[in-house]
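Okay, is this right?
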Amino acid sequence: MIADLVPAGVLACDAFDDAGPDAAARLFSAERAVVAGVFDERRREFTTVRGCARRALAALGTAPVPLVPGPLGAPRWPTGVVGSMTHCRGYRAAAVARAAEFAAVGIDAEPQEPLPGIVATRTVSDTESGWLEQDFSRAAEVPLDRLLFCAKEASYKAFSPWLGTRFGLRDFTVRLRSDGTFHGMYPSSSGPLSAIRTGGFSGRWVARSGYLLTAVAVSADPLTR
Protein backbone atom coordinates (compact mmCIF):
# COMPACT_ATOMS: atom_id res chain seq x y z
CA MET A 1 0.00 0.00 0.00
CA ILE A 2 2.77 2.43 0.86
CA ALA A 3 4.18 2.04 -2.65
CA ASP A 4 1.12 3.87 -3.99
CA LEU A 5 2.11 7.02 -2.09
CA VAL A 6 5.77 7.42 -2.95
CA PRO A 7 7.13 8.94 -6.20
CA ALA A 8 9.11 7.11 -8.86
CA GLY A 9 12.59 6.40 -7.58
CA VAL A 10 11.41 5.51 -4.07
CA LEU A 11 11.07 1.74 -3.62
CA ALA A 12 8.75 0.38 -0.96
CA CYS A 13 7.78 -2.97 0.51
CA ASP A 14 5.14 -3.85 3.11
CA ALA A 15 3.72 -6.78 5.07
CA PHE A 16 0.47 -7.30 6.92
CA ASP A 17 1.68 -9.73 9.55
CA ASP A 18 4.76 -11.49 10.85
CA ALA A 19 4.15 -14.81 9.14
CA GLY A 20 5.30 -14.08 5.59
CA PRO A 21 8.75 -14.32 3.99
CA ASP A 22 9.86 -11.04 5.57
CA ALA A 23 9.34 -12.54 9.01
CA ALA A 24 12.02 -15.11 8.21
CA ALA A 25 14.60 -12.40 7.62
CA ARG A 26 17.78 -13.14 9.53
CA LEU A 27 18.96 -10.38 11.78
CA PHE A 28 22.57 -9.29 11.91
CA SER A 29 24.23 -9.63 15.31
CA ALA A 30 24.06 -5.84 15.81
CA GLU A 31 20.31 -5.95 15.17
CA ARG A 32 19.80 -8.90 17.52
CA ALA A 33 21.51 -6.89 20.23
CA VAL A 34 18.94 -4.10 19.83
CA VAL A 35 16.03 -6.43 20.59
CA ALA A 36 17.73 -8.67 23.13
CA GLY A 37 15.38 -9.16 26.04
CA VAL A 38 12.33 -7.48 24.46
CA PHE A 39 8.89 -9.06 24.14
CA ASP A 40 8.41 -11.55 21.30
CA GLU A 41 5.87 -9.28 19.58
CA ARG A 42 8.37 -6.42 19.44
CA ARG A 43 11.11 -8.75 18.14
CA ARG A 44 8.82 -10.07 15.40
CA GLU A 45 7.78 -6.65 14.14
CA PHE A 46 11.40 -5.46 14.32
CA THR A 47 12.45 -8.46 12.20
CA THR A 48 9.62 -8.21 9.70
CA VAL A 49 10.05 -4.50 9.02
CA ARG A 50 13.76 -5.10 8.39
CA GLY A 51 12.82 -7.89 6.03
CA CYS A 52 10.69 -5.33 4.17
CA ALA A 53 13.61 -2.91 4.15
CA ARG A 54 16.03 -5.51 2.80
CA ARG A 55 13.65 -6.40 -0.02
CA ALA A 56 13.35 -2.70 -0.91
CA LEU A 57 17.13 -2.29 -0.74
CA ALA A 58 17.61 -5.34 -2.96
CA ALA A 59 15.29 -3.79 -5.55
CA LEU A 60 17.49 -0.71 -5.35
CA GLY A 61 20.54 -2.89 -5.98
CA THR A 62 21.95 -2.49 -2.47
CA ALA A 63 23.35 -5.40 -0.46
CA PRO A 64 21.87 -6.09 2.99
CA VAL A 65 23.53 -4.42 5.97
CA PRO A 66 22.62 -4.08 9.66
CA LEU A 67 19.83 -1.53 10.09
CA VAL A 68 20.27 -0.38 13.67
CA PRO A 69 18.83 2.78 15.23
CA GLY A 70 21.01 5.88 15.27
CA PRO A 71 21.14 8.56 18.01
CA LEU A 72 17.72 9.96 17.04
CA GLY A 73 16.08 6.54 16.81
CA ALA A 74 15.95 6.37 13.01
CA PRO A 75 17.67 3.42 11.31
CA ARG A 76 21.15 3.92 9.89
CA TRP A 77 20.87 3.28 6.16
CA PRO A 78 23.69 2.16 3.84
CA THR A 79 25.90 4.89 2.43
CA GLY A 80 24.15 6.64 -0.45
CA VAL A 81 20.66 5.57 0.66
CA VAL A 82 17.86 7.36 2.49
CA GLY A 83 14.83 5.59 3.85
CA SER A 84 12.18 5.14 6.48
CA MET A 85 10.37 2.32 8.27
CA THR A 86 7.02 2.10 10.01
CA HIS A 87 5.03 -0.50 11.88
CA CYS A 88 1.74 -0.56 13.70
CA ARG A 89 -0.71 -3.27 14.70
CA GLY A 90 -0.87 -5.69 11.75
CA TYR A 91 1.18 -3.66 9.28
CA ARG A 92 4.91 -3.10 8.56
CA ALA A 93 6.51 -1.14 5.73
CA ALA A 94 9.80 0.34 4.53
CA ALA A 95 10.72 2.77 1.75
CA VAL A 96 14.19 3.56 0.40
CA ALA A 97 15.75 5.74 -2.31
CA ARG A 98 19.13 6.82 -3.55
CA ALA A 99 20.46 9.89 -1.76
CA ALA A 100 21.55 11.29 -5.12
CA GLU A 101 17.85 11.52 -6.04
CA PHE A 102 16.14 12.18 -2.70
CA ALA A 103 17.38 14.12 0.29
CA ALA A 104 14.88 12.56 2.69
CA VAL A 105 12.08 9.99 2.87
CA GLY A 106 9.56 9.55 5.68
CA ILE A 107 6.62 7.14 5.96
CA ASP A 108 4.14 6.34 8.70
CA ALA A 109 1.21 3.98 9.25
CA GLU A 110 -1.49 4.20 11.91
CA PRO A 111 -4.69 2.29 12.63
CA GLN A 112 -7.74 4.08 11.28
CA GLU A 113 -8.95 5.03 14.76
CA PRO A 114 -9.29 8.37 16.59
CA LEU A 115 -6.40 9.48 18.76
CA PRO A 116 -6.78 9.40 22.54
CA GLY A 117 -7.91 12.87 23.60
CA ILE A 118 -4.74 13.80 25.44
CA VAL A 119 -2.58 12.84 22.43
CA ALA A 120 -4.79 14.85 20.07
CA THR A 121 -4.47 17.88 22.33
CA ARG A 122 -0.69 17.61 22.25
CA THR A 123 -0.56 17.08 18.48
CA VAL A 124 -3.16 19.33 16.86
CA SER A 125 -2.69 23.11 17.09
CA ASP A 126 -5.59 25.57 17.04
CA THR A 127 -4.54 26.63 13.53
CA GLU A 128 -4.55 23.05 12.28
CA SER A 129 -7.90 22.37 13.95
CA GLY A 130 -9.34 25.35 12.09
CA TRP A 131 -7.99 24.05 8.81
CA LEU A 132 -9.57 20.65 9.41
CA GLU A 133 -12.96 22.26 10.01
CA GLN A 134 -12.53 24.38 6.89
CA ASP A 135 -11.22 21.70 4.52
CA PHE A 136 -13.18 18.60 5.59
CA SER A 137 -16.86 18.00 6.18
CA ARG A 138 -18.06 17.14 9.66
CA ALA A 139 -18.92 13.71 8.28
CA ALA A 140 -15.34 12.93 7.24
CA GLU A 141 -14.87 9.19 7.03
CA VAL A 142 -11.35 9.22 8.46
CA PRO A 143 -10.26 10.20 11.99
CA LEU A 144 -8.63 13.51 11.10
CA ASP A 145 -6.72 13.86 14.36
CA ARG A 146 -5.01 10.49 13.80
CA LEU A 147 -4.40 11.33 10.14
CA LEU A 148 -2.72 14.60 11.12
CA PHE A 149 -0.62 12.73 13.69
CA CYS A 150 0.38 10.27 10.95
CA ALA A 151 1.36 13.08 8.56
CA LYS A 152 3.49 14.72 11.25
CA GLU A 153 5.18 11.40 12.05
CA ALA A 154 6.16 10.94 8.40
CA SER A 155 7.45 14.54 8.35
CA TYR A 156 9.50 13.95 11.48
CA LYS A 157 10.97 10.74 10.06
CA ALA A 158 12.00 12.59 6.90
CA PHE A 159 13.54 15.72 8.38
CA SER A 160 14.90 14.74 11.78
CA PRO A 161 17.56 12.29 10.47
CA TRP A 162 18.40 14.61 7.57
CA LEU A 163 19.02 17.59 9.85
CA GLY A 164 20.33 15.61 12.82
CA THR A 165 17.82 17.30 15.13
CA ARG A 166 15.15 15.82 17.39
CA PHE A 167 11.90 17.68 16.77
CA GLY A 168 8.49 17.45 18.40
CA LEU A 169 5.33 16.82 16.39
CA ARG A 170 4.08 20.31 17.20
CA ASP A 171 7.24 21.71 15.61
CA PHE A 172 5.69 20.82 12.25
CA THR A 173 2.63 22.66 10.96
CA VAL A 174 0.62 20.50 8.56
CA ARG A 175 -2.48 21.25 6.51
CA LEU A 176 -4.29 18.15 5.32
CA ARG A 177 -6.16 18.28 2.04
CA SER A 178 -9.15 16.16 1.13
CA ASP A 179 -7.56 15.17 -2.19
CA GLY A 180 -5.04 12.87 -0.46
CA THR A 181 -2.21 15.38 -0.12
CA PHE A 182 -0.89 17.58 2.65
CA HIS A 183 1.35 20.62 2.92
CA GLY A 184 3.79 21.13 5.79
CA MET A 185 6.04 23.84 7.14
CA TYR A 186 9.42 23.10 8.66
CA PRO A 187 10.13 23.72 12.34
CA SER A 188 11.10 27.34 12.95
CA SER A 189 14.38 26.12 14.45
CA SER A 190 15.38 24.26 11.29
CA GLY A 191 17.86 26.99 10.33
CA PRO A 192 19.00 26.33 6.77
CA LEU A 193 15.65 24.95 5.66
CA SER A 194 13.86 28.27 6.18
CA ALA A 195 16.35 29.88 3.83
CA ILE A 196 16.35 27.02 1.33
CA ARG A 197 12.66 26.39 0.84
CA THR A 198 10.37 28.97 2.38
CA GLY A 199 7.42 27.29 0.70
CA GLY A 200 7.56 24.22 2.92
CA PHE A 201 7.07 20.65 1.71
CA SER A 202 4.32 18.33 0.52
CA GLY A 203 3.24 14.78 1.21
CA ARG A 204 0.52 12.27 0.39
CA TRP A 205 -1.94 10.24 2.45
CA VAL A 206 -4.45 7.44 1.98
CA ALA A 207 -6.96 5.58 4.15
CA ARG A 208 -7.17 1.93 3.14
CA SER A 209 -7.87 -1.49 4.65
CA GLY A 210 -8.28 -0.03 8.12
CA TYR A 211 -5.01 1.92 8.06
CA LEU A 212 -3.91 5.51 7.57
CA LEU A 213 -0.71 5.85 5.55
CA THR A 214 1.40 8.94 4.89
CA ALA A 215 4.59 9.62 2.96
CA VAL A 216 7.02 12.51 2.45
CA ALA A 217 9.80 12.38 -0.16
CA VAL A 218 12.08 15.40 -0.60
CA SER A 219 13.86 15.68 -3.92
CA ALA A 220 17.65 16.08 -3.74
CA ASP A 221 17.73 18.98 -6.21
CA PRO A 222 20.26 21.80 -5.64
CA LEU A 223 17.79 23.70 -3.46
CA THR A 224 17.61 20.91 -0.90
CA ARG A 225 21.20 19.78 -0.71
About this structure: The CA atoms of residues 34 and 68 lie 7 Å apart. The chain has a mean pLDDT of 89.
